[in-house]
Amino acid sequence: MTHWWSRVRPDNFTLALLCTVLLASFLPMQGAAAMVLDDVTDVAIAALFFLHGARLPRESIVAGLLHWRLHLTILACTFVLFPLLGLAFKPLQGWLLTPELYIGVLFLCTLPSTVQSSIAFTSMAGGNVPAAVVSASLSSILGVFLTPLLLALLAGTSGGMHNPGQAIVSIMLQLLVPFVAGHLLRPWIAGWVQRQRALLRYTDQATILLVVYSAFGEAVNEGLWSKTPLLSLLGVALVAAVLLGVAMPLITLLARRMGFNRADEITIVFCGSKKSLATGVPIAKVLFAGGSLGAIVLPVMIYHQIQLIVCAVIAKRYARTQDR
Question: Which stretches are transmembrane (predicted)?
Answer without folding.
Answer: 70-89, 101-121, 133-155, 167-185, 231-255, 276-296
